[in-house]
Design brief:
The complex is a heterodimer of chains A (658) and B (706).
Chain A (H helix, E strand, L loop, with lengths): L1 E4 L9 E5 L2 E5 L20 H4 L17 E4 L2 E4 L20 E3 L9 H5 L7 E4 L1 H20 L12 H4 L4 H5 L12 H8 L2 E3 L6 E3 L3 E7 L7 E6 L4 E5 L22 E4 L10 H17 L4 E4 L5 H15 L7 E4 L3 H10 L6 H7 L8 H6 L3 E4 L5 H5 L5 E4 L9 H8 L6 E4 L6 H5 L8 E4 L8 H11 L3 E5 L24 E3 L4 E3 L9 E3 L1 H6 L3 E4 L2 E3 L5 E5 L2 E5 L12 H4 L14 E2 L4 H10 L5 E5 L3 E6 L4 E6 L2 E5 L4 H14 L1 E2 L1
Parallel strand pairs in A: 3-6, 6-7, 7-8, 12-13, 13-20, 14-17, 14-18, 15-16, 15-17, 18-19, 20-21, 23-27
Antiparallel strand pairs in A: 1-2, 1-22, 2-3, 4-5, 9-10, 10-11, 11-12, 24-25, 26-27, 28-33, 29-30, 30-31, 31-32
Helix pairs in contact in A: 3-6
Chain B lengths: L4 H9 L3 H8 L4 H17 L10 H22 L7 H17 L2 H21 L5 H11 L7 H9 L5 H14 L8 H19 L9 H10 L3 H19 L10 H15 L16 H8 L3 H14 L9 H13 L5 H17 L8 H14 L5 H16 L13 H11 L5 H13 L1 H4 L11 H16 L3 H17 L10 H14 L4 H19 L18 H24 L1 H9 L4 H18 L9 E3 L4 H10 L8 E3 H7 L2 H9 L2 H6 L1 H18 L13
Antiparallel strand pairs in B: 1-2
The chains are: A alpha/beta (658), B mainly alpha (706).
Organism (chain A): Hippocampus comes
InterPro entries (chain A): Beta_Casp, Integrator_9su, IntS9-like_C, Metallo-B-lactamas, RibonucZ/Hydroxyglut_hydro
Family (chain A): Belongs to the metallo-beta-lactamase superfamily. RNA-metabolizing metallo-beta-lactamase-like family. INTS9 subfamily.
Chain lengths: 658, 706
């Protein structure tokens, strides 16, 4: 069993598991942090961004003024933003049989894997994962296509140039694998390969293994996966949460008794408690609005935003914010808000029961009804006529490199009354803000990451007790910035197996058993004999038939009465009709009884020698040795066949024939 | 009943001690505890005064009871296999009760008899019994004698289980303050025990270099998280007392203890980079972190300890560290509401100790304000409430320097408080009103003139009056009345003309407050009226309040002076009537809430005594409405027919029979409802009703009288 690790990002994993005869890809996350090296894509022409000076090396040897721009001491690539794809060279992607998706954030690289790679397999995901994943991909494509960029910068990627560049650009890894965003056609084609599954539904893969998604409690439709054969069980835990938010709670008990547990997607903010951050978010929002400023919340269009809106729903009245407008701007804002309300069966119990009242499960419906929350596909159109300040705007993309958020950064960045509140943990907020410096607006970082923290995960592992744990190497050491926090790492016995991008791990467990079915008529013919209390054995002669990884014992076909004329031709195809197999022996030869028996048969002079394995009987008169060992008996006598046969028969008296 | 010697003798002689001893081990805690009390009482009551005067009968009885009790205790002191420890705990409690008050012969007798069992118990080291056993030891302990308790104590202070050891040391230190000087060795040992966990966790060398054996013991403790945490908490609870120990006993400077608590707080919040100095911790850092990072229990105990440590000697040398960690806790988003409240409390305590606040950097002040500003908008009302309270308390900290050196300037905090007046939670509104009242002097710097108030301040007063009229919760309304009391009492003589904002507002408060549905608001309104009385009569010689004897005669000298003041009294009285004070008092008098009526009655009596014998005030009259309380008063004055609106104040005061009323009102309601008389009346009236209902069945009357 092998695990190929195609992504080094612990929360955006992409691993391939070879198990029995199947090749299963576990998630295909797209590392979007690479876009932080690019200049933002403004929705309307930005004089500031267009006037940024080009970069050239101080000694004049290198001039990349067209490709690289300098802003507040940092260098950015002036080109369409590009993403860091999962490794595509480690393994032939066309050999992948299935892809299991655990949540909509972990499927953004799907088109890069399934399109133009020869992939012919199936993708398994739950319905909300598919639908919301589609929305996020659609949004990404629209963000990019709305503001096409004519030029594409490539010279900077050359190895000899890249090492001369300053700052983070120099240290960026695998820049040659970075790719531009896919188009809608690829998205549609990739998503057409998805087959929907429900929680705990069991899907057979070629009869070899069975896969089944379990609720992971992180987002709508998010799942962990169980991959099991008859005798082995592998659990794949990705983005899971034990907090009470909107999705169905996590199913922990089904993870028990795993041979291997692959653990990814722990919280990216182990020191930030989501409750505290939510409080911080609300306080800062209220503070800014009271002072007459605007609040900008860069966020994804699905996920934590539902919880934020729910929290604000309760908070706005108590903080006297009833008249402040809340805007949600995204090409998919409407669908996201509507979709969340129809996936009742995937919601937590509390919200499910609301549906029967009937009431919308999320309170944002009420906010929309009362006109407190308004949503628009973009800043163009209706929004510009409805826009009132001070207000709160939720919009994407959280990297601040594309999407409507770029416009608001340009609009509000100069006033210290305004505040930008980061709630998504995927991007470093300082890096995100870099191309907007100098910035007067207040910045608040309250990342809300509801995924498991180290404390929760060690408790979980104690409970489910997997034999082996595999995890990204980042989890096996404290975070770089807090090297003293040794509580922020996984400490297990035996230590977890760590992987990094491009690792190939041989998972340390051997398959020892395989299930074989037996036909009733053969079963009927068996004659079991008990060798130990509770254990019986029987010999069986049959034909092993293997198809679709299912093995069945069929009765040996009798040779058909062959027509005499064609006898010769069929000789080869006839099953070898052998003699009846020799009977198997079992049991042990008790020394005392054997000696007595020898004596009875006239062999008196026996010298017994004790060895590590058993005993050696030296029949001195006959010059013969009998080695009695636990798993074998040898009679060594030269040229005395009658004696050997006698001795053999004496030994056989103690043994049982099967 | 057993307070009576004869009853006691009867009880003992009738052999009731045996069943009482059985009850002592009753599974019900209440029964066992009551039996304990009773047994202790009997033993203590019948112990001979002293040997010479003891009469023989009492003596034999006494020794019989003592013997019986001692046997019982001895038998159930050490838990036997298979029995529950609860029995032993109760016995220990009984023993502590007796030893606490027992005199010499009895005490020695008991200790002699039980020494072996107690020693066995101490050696067995049952963790759950440590506190109770320590109670017994400390009850019987005196440092001068070398008896069984001293032996027990030293064995308890040398147990091998750190958690028990800490409990024992804490109990010893807690109760040994009376004999501190003469028992230095034990105290030194206890202090050492209590400082060891802090030394171990924080790496501050509180004990110099701790022996490796200690470190090993502490490391072993880390296996059980909850015991470790409770051990740390016990230590923290005792650090303030430890820090006050004389230098000869304390192995380090008190400031070092403060610093170690600060470090512990740092570790708790996950920022432990500073604790690297500890070599003892290196091996088990992970376990320590896993135990105490983000542990609310430790945080709370440490903050409480830090608050109390503010009074330890030399504490002000740690200003920077303390202020930094407290501000960090105040602005940390992960602090839970109680932790936050304790940080506020600690900060207020320390600010009152720091003589000079200039050491607090501008950056820290900004952080403090940012934190507080954020907290004032927190979604949790508890947080908002304690933040607003904190702002109020900061105002009260006496600033030794100019107002500029105040930690948070009024300019910054006043908008937060005004905003909080509109909070959706009534507790927060009430706290905001109180905080505004506390910061009074700086908030309304020239309150005397009233007319010079800024627009914002006038608005605030308007908002407060609105709260009094419209708020649905009593807390906020009460706070408003108290606000005006503070304001009024801070003005030495509010000018009546031109009518200041203060006096106008007070008039509104009086009229609204007396109509309030909440009796506490009404009592507060009457207290406000009392302030006005004080102010009005302050110049008048006879106004010294209720303590004046009503029948005291005035000397001619005083009389002469008084006459000169009669005119002033007249005008004071009429101004009180004009302000509505008199109406408030009269309406209070007939209020259905007893405390309100009592207060009003007392104030009316005071007015009556003040104006007693003054001819000039006869002409002062007041208006009685024809409805509500006016009607009631008329009824009492027996002039219901008279529809005239005005009545003479003097006449009202003399004819309301105020003294009788006061006597009646000052008896608590229990007096009426729980008196035997009332019970009898209930029974009789029930009997009458039932008897009337069915005369034949008169015998069946069952009166259920609880």
């Amino acid at each position: 069993m092998k695990l190929y690790c195609l992504s080094g990002h612990p929360t955006l994993p992409c691993n391939v598991l070879k198990f029995k005869s199947t090749t299963i890809m576990l998630d295909c996350g797209l590392d979007t942090t690479s876009v932080l090296n690019f200049l933002p894509l403004p929705l309307v022409h930005s004089p500031r961004l267009s006037k940024l000076p080009g970069w050239s090396a101080k000694d004049g040897t290198l001039n990349l003024e067209k490709e690289l721009k300098e802003c507040a001491g940092r260098v950015f690539v002036d080109s369409q933003p590009e993403f860091c794809l999962p490794e595509r060279e480690l393994l032939d992607l066309s050999t992948i049989d299935v892809i299991l998706i655990s949540n909509y954030h972990c499927m953004m690289a799907l088109p890069y894997i399934t399109e133009n790679t020869g992939f012919t397999g199936t993708v398994y995901a739950t319905e909300p994962t598919l639908q919301i994943g589609r929305l996020l991909m659609e949004e990404l494509v629209k963000f990019m296509e709305r503001v096409p960029k004519a030029q594409s910068a490539t010279s900077w990627k050359k190895k000899e140039i890249q090492r001369l560049l300053p700052g983070p650009l120099k240290d960026a890894t695998d820049v040659w694998t970075w790719k531009r965003s896919y188009g809608m056609q690829e998205v549609n084609s990739a998503l057409s390969k998805v087959q929907l599954v429900g929680y705990s539904q069991k899907v057979e893969l070629f009869g070899a293994v069975q896969i089944s998604p379990l609720s992971s409690g992180y987002s709508l439709g998010s799942s962990n996966w169980i991959i099991q054969s008859h005798h082995e069980k592998v659990s794949y835990v990705s983005g899971s949460s034990l907090l009470t938010t909107h999705p169905q709670p996590m199913d922990q008990s089904s993870l028990k008794n795993s041979d291997v547990l692959i653990l990814t997607g722990l919280t990216q903010m182990p020191t930030a408690n989501p409750d505290g951050m939510l409080g911080e978010f609300c306080s800062n929002l209220a503070m800014t609005i009271r002072a007459g400023g605007n609040v900008l919340v860069p966020c994804y269009s699905s996920g934590v935003i539902y919880d934020l809106l729910e929290c604000l729903y309760q908070f706005i009245d108590s903080a006297n914010l009833g008249t402040t407008p809340f805007y949600f701007i995204s090409p998919v804002a409407n669908s996201s808000l509507e979709f969340s309300q129809i996936f009742a069966e995937w919601l937590c119990h509390n919200k499910q029961s609301k549906v029967y009242l009937p009431e919308p499960p999320f309170p944002h419906a009420e906010l929309i009804q009362s006109n407190k929350l308004k949503h628009y596909p973009s800043i163009h159109g209706d929004f510009s006529s409805d826009f009132r300040q001070p207000c709160v705007v939720f919009t994407g993309h959280p990297s601040l490199r594309f999407g409507d958020v770029v416009h608001f950064m340009e609009l509000w960045g100069k006033s210290s009354l305004n505040t930008i509140i980061f709630t998504e943990p995927d991007f470093s907020y300082l890096d995100a803000l870099a191309p907007y410096q100098p910035l007067a607006m207040k910045c608040v970082y309250c990342p809300i990451d509801t995924r498991l923290n180290f404390h929760q995960v060690s408790k979980l592992l104690k409970e489910v007790q997997p034999v082996h744990v595999v995890c990204p190497e980042q989890y096996t050491q404290p975070p770089l910035t807090q090297s003293h926090r040794s509580d922020l790492m996984l400490e297990l016995q035996p230590p977890p197996m760590a992987y990094r991008r491009c690792s190939v791990l041989s998972l340390p467990f051997r398959r020892r058993y395989e299930r074989v079915y037996i036909l009733p008529e053969i079963a009927n013919s068996l004659v079991p004999s008990e060798i130990k209390p509770g254990i019986s054995v029987a010999t069986v002669s049959a034909m092993l038939h293997s198809k679709d990884n299912k093995h069945t014992l069929l009765s040996v076909p009798k040779p058909p009465p062959a027509p005499p004329t064609k006898k010769r031709k069929r000789v080869m195809e006839e099953p070898p009709v052998g003699q009846a197999p020799k009977p198997l022996l079992s049991g042990a030869v008790p020394l005392e009884a054997f000696l007595a028996l020898l004596q009875k048969n006239g062999i008196m002079e026996v010298k017994v020698e004790e060895t590590a394995e058993g005993h050696i009987l030296h029949l001195q008169a006959e010059d013969t040795l009998i080695q009695l060992e636990e798993d074998g008996t040898h009679i060594v006598c030269d040229n005395n066949e009658p004696l050997r046969t006698t001795l053999r028969d004496l030994v056989l008296r103690f043994l049982q024939k099967i | 009943m057993l307070l009576h010697p004869k009853a006691l003798a009867f009880f003992v002689q009738s052999g009731f001690i045996t069943p009482l001893l059985q009850l002592q081990s009753d599974p019900s805690m209440f029964v066992a505890s009551a039996a304990n009390q009773l047994l202790a009482h009997i033993l203590l009551a019948i112990q001979p005064e002293n040997k010479e005067h003891a009469n023989i009968k009492t003596n034999t009885e006494h020794s019989r009871v003592v013997l019986q009790t001692t046997d019982h205790i001895k038998e159930s002191l050490v838990p036997k296999e298979g029995t529950l420890a609860a029995g032993s705990l109760q016995v220990l409690k009984l023993l502590a009760l007796i030893l606490d008050q027992a005199r010499r012969p009895l005490r020695d007798q008991l200790l002699m008899a039980l020494a072996a069992s107690l020693e066995e118990l101490a050696e067995a080291a049952y963790s759950q019994m440590t506190p109770a056993l320590m109670d017994v030891i400390m009850a019987g302990y005196s440092p001068d004698s070398d008896d069984v308790t001293s032996r027990l104590l030293s064995s308890m202070l040398n147990v091998n289980k750190p958690a028990d050891l800490v409990q024992a040391a804490a109990a010893f230190l807690h109760q040994s303050h009376s004999c501190a000087s003469s028992d230095a060795a034990n105290i030194r040992q206890a202090v050492r025990i209590l400082l060891l966990p802090l030394h171990f966790v924080t790496g501050h060398p509180l004990l110099g270099t701790a022996p490796s054996a200690d470190t090993a013991i502490m490391t072993a403790q880390l296996k059980n998280k909850s015991t470790f945490i409770s051990m740390i908490c016990v230590c923290l609870r005792n650090t303030p007392q430890v820090a006050l120990m004389p230098p000869g006993i304390l192995p380090c400077l008190p400031a070092m203890i403060v610093l170690s608590v600060v470090t512990l707080l740092r570790i708790c919040s996950g920022d432990a980079s500073t604790s690297s100095s500890s070599s003892s911790l290196d091996g088990c850092k992970n376990e320590v972190y896993r135990c105490i990072v983000n542990c609310g229990k430790v945080q709370k105990s440490a903050l409480e300890a830090l608050a109390s440590l503010s009074s330890s000697p030399g504490a002000d040398s740690t200003m920077n560290e303390v202020s930094e960690i407290l501000v960090h806790y105040m602005s940390n988003p992960d602090s839970d509401p109680t932790v936050l409240q304790k940080s506020y409390k600690a900060f207020v305590q320390w600010t009152s100790v720091w003589t000079d606040l200039s050491f607090i950097s501008q950056q820290l002040r900004e952080d403090l304000f940012m934190g507080v500003e954020k907290r004032a908008c927190d979604p949790r009302w508890e947080v908002r409430d304690s933040t607003i309270e904190f702002l109020g308390q900061l105002h009260c900290v006496p600033t030794r320097k100019s107002a500029d050196s105040a930690l948070l300037s009024e300019r910054l905090t006043a908008p937060l408080l005004r905003e909080a007046l509109q909070d959706s939670e009534s507790y927060v509104r009430a706290s905001a009103v109180s905080a505004l009242a506390r910061g009074f002097r700086s908030f309304v710097p020239d309150g005397l003139q009233g007319t010079e108030l800024s627009q914002e301040q006038t608005d605030t007063v308007g908002r407060l009056l609105k709260i009094l009229c419209e708020d649905t919760e009593g807390f906020a309304r009460r706070a408003v009345v108290r606000y005006f009391m503070t304001w009024l009492s801070s003005c030495s003589s509010p000018p009546s003309s031109p009518p200041s904002l203060l006096l106008e507002s007070v008039r509104v408060v009086l009229s609204r407050g007396s109509l309030d549905l909440d009796w506490e608001v009404k009592v507060n309104t009457l207290e406000l009226a009392e302030l006005l009385l004080d102010a009005a009569f302050s110049d008048h010689g006879r106004c010294t309040g209720a303590e004046n004897h009503p029948y005291a005669t005035f000397s001619t000298h005083a009389n002469g002076q008084a006459r000169a003041g009669d005119a002033a009294l007249d005008s004071a009285l009429s101004s009180l009537v004009d302000q509505g004070v008199f109406s408030v008092l009269l309406s209070g008098l007939v209020d259905c809430d007893r405390p309100v009526a009592l207060k009003a009655c007392e104030l009316l009596i005071r007015i009556r005594e003040t104006i007693y014998g003054t001819a000039d005030v006869m002409s002062v009259s007041c208006e009685l409405p024809e409805w509500g309380w006016g009607k009631e008063i008329r009824k009492m004055l027996k002039n219901e027919g008279d529809k005239g609106q005005r009545v003479s104040v003097c006449e009202v005061l003399t004819s309301l029979a105020l003294d009788e009323r006061r006597v009646l009102l000052s008896q608590s309601s229990d007096y009426v409802h729980n008196s035997f008389q009332s019970l009898l009346q209930d029974i009789l009236s029930a009997g009458v009703t039932l008897g009337d209902a069915g005369k034949d069945g008169g015998q069946e009357v069952i009166v259920d009288c609880y």
